[in-house]
Amino acid sequence: MLTEKIKISDYLDPLRRFGRNGRVHSVFDRSFNVMIGQQLVNINNYHNYLTGFGIFLPDALFEQVLPLIEVGNRVQVREHGLTFYSTKGTFSLSLEEKELVSLQVKELSFTSAELQLLKEILLQQKLETKIGLPEDEKTQAVFAALRQPVSDWEPIIAHLIGRGKGLTPSGDDLLVAYQAMLYALQQPEADALAQALAKPLSTTDVSRAYIQSASQGYVNSLMLQLFKDLKKQNPQVIEKDVQQLMSVGHSSGKDLSFGLLLALESLSLEEKE
Questions:
Q1: Helix or strand run (H / E) with residue 41
Q2: Exposure of 95 in the CB half-sphere (CA atoms within 13 A)
Q3: Do 81 and 92 meet the contact criterion of CB atoms below 8 Å apart?
Q4: I want to staple 56 with a disulfide (CB 3.0 to 4.6 A). Which of 7, 9, 134, 143 is the partner?
Q5: Is the dihedral of CA 52, 131, 143, 114 positive or negative?
Q6: Which H or E run includes 43?
Q7: Where are the domains of the chain?
């Protein structure tokens, strides 16, 4: 649970490496995105959710800055904070007291028993019937390919990227989670997928930001909590974590969960002892 303190994914630190000036990209009820250079930064007020490219603001701070946020407004990146400019006024957000949150999965390790438990719980969710992708023959063929070690990512990416509705199309979410699981399990295919995803992609800016951070091993806080809780090998805890992840967005959480399952199905879990 994120406490009432500014939290920043360590993927974003320091912010100034992305640029000195930005613009408000998009605005929602409890979050907004700022584009700094080529990096999208998600600033939100979700107490239990932080993206790999995210900043969490406590209630009081978020309520102060939100009225000034309009798409296109200028944002200046200072050494220890952000300054937001609008026709309604200026607001300087100090990040000196920030708490860095590590959302990196590359240093994790799992036993076969832990992974088997996660696989069984994911299978119980019947995710393939809940995701935001159609059950057509081509998509089923792509799923079948992902259930095996992949040697050629190009046709898989060509089919999945941008496929599905919303700010993060379902195909993108699936690949983000698949990428994260490969990195969490130190699979050599992880780097090959990251390289394939580094090429220009026809998708949304928000989805592209998730892909960029996942390609460096960063995930959202709910996925990381799920990974960490595997150590407890408690089915009730893992079930709760999976349900929380599945609840993200309209179908995004289910798409992410299915991506984890496909990655697990591509491996021989006995080799992870």
A1: strand 39-44
A2: 23
A3: yes
A4: 7
A5: positive
A6: strand 39-44
A7: 7-101, 112-272
**Tokens 């832990």, residue located:** 114
Q: Which of 72, 71, 73, 64 is nearest to 91 (CA)?
A: 64
Contacts of 156 (CB under 8 A, 6+ apart): 142, 145, 146, 150, 175
Taking alpha carbons only, the member of 123, 178, 100 closest to residue 145 is 178
In angstroms, what CA-CA distances link 20 with 24, 38, 80, 186, 208? 14, 12, 12, 35, 21
For residue range 95-124, list pLDDT tens digits in order: 999 999 999 999 999 999 999 999 999 999
CB neighbour list of residue 196: distance below 8 Å, 6 or more residues apart: 153, 154, 157
User: What are phi and psi for residue 110, nearest 5 degrees?
Assistant: -140, 155
Of residues 47, 155, 32, 178, the one with CA closest to residue 93: 32
Round to whole Å and give the CA distance between 152 and 192: 9
SS3 21: strand
162-172 exposure pattern, b = at least 16 Cβ within 10 A, e = fewer? bbbebbbbbbb
Tell me the C-alpha distance between 169 and 202, whole Å: 11
Task: Find, among 102, 101, 72, 104, the residue nearest to 85 by Cα.
Answer: 72
The predicted-structure confidence for 236-247, as pLDDT tens digits, reads as follows 999 999 999 999
> Has this prediction a pTM greater than 0.90?
yes
